[in-house]
Each structure stands twice: as structure tokens, then as C-alpha cells.
Amino acid sequence: MQPLSTLRRDRRDPELRTPVKPAVEDAQGSTTGRHIVCAVCGHHITTERERSEMKGRHEHRCVNPGGVIFHIGCFRRAPGCVSHGVPTTEFTWFPGFAWNYALCGGCSTLLGWHYHGAEAGAFFGLILNRLATQQSH
């Protein structure tokens, strides 16, 4: 397994100052064969095909009220996550969306947040360094 945070496009992340590797793409330019799993237990969470954008980007740096910085990626669906808690709009990083916790369905590790918008639908904001990729067989 390879940490998901190393699978961004070929560029340097100015905040982390670490090199990143490009994702594998097919002839149509889409990523193929990559399952995204929990880095702790290996439980299937989603796929690269479920990547989405919010506010014009897939990846975001977000700071919680305690000052903790999270590097998250947005995903349309994450069937391997379990949503936990009552959705709230307090301290939301995405105006117009309420959130609750997204836990790994295998080991209950906090993987991020499930966002719910009244008119805009739902998406997952998942903490990238708590995920890994696994090539499908």
C-alpha cells in the first residue's frame, strides 16, 4: 500500500515540502484500478474514481477550532465509511454544508467528515494521511 497523500499530480506541496508522485492514468486520462483503503486496517473505503472537487479543488487544508490542521480530499462516495453523530453546521469548512464524522467501517478510526448540503447533496472530506491506495487485482 502507498499513502494516498503521495498520489497527487507531479508537483511539490508548498506546505509539506515533500515530493509527490503522479497518479497512474489510462488513455482517457482517468485514474484506474486504485482502491482507497484505511491506512490502519486496510478496509476498503472508496476508489480514485470517486474523487470530487469542492470550492474548485479536490484537496484542502482545514484548521479545526483547536488549531489542528487537516489535509483532506473530497470524494462523492465513501461506502467503506460509517457516518457517526448528528450533523451540525458549527465550524463547518464548507459553508452551506452540515457535517458529522466519517469513521472507518472496519476499525472505527476517524477518517474525516461526511458533509450534507440541503440542495447541494453530500460528499466526504477524508484525511489523506489516514488513507492508502491499493492496486486492484
What does the model show?
- The protein is mostly beta strands and 137 residues long.
- It has one domain: Peptide methionine sulfoxide reductase (Metal Binding Protein, Guanine Nucleotide Exchange Factor, Chain A).
- Helix content is 0%, strand content 46%.
- It contains no helices and twelve strands.
- The strands form three sheets. A six-stranded antiparallel sheet has the order 6-7-11-10-9-8, with no helix packed on it.
- β4 (34-38) and β5 form a beta hairpin.
- It is globular and about 35 Å long.
- 27% of the residues are buried.
- Residues 5-31 have low confidence and may be disordered.
Oligomer: single chain
Radius of gyration: 15 Å
End-to-end separation = 13 Å
Main β-sheet: number of strands, strand sense, barrel status?
6 strands, antiparallel
Question: What's this entry about, in short?
Answer:
The chain contains no helices and 12 strands. The chain has 137 residues and is mainly β.
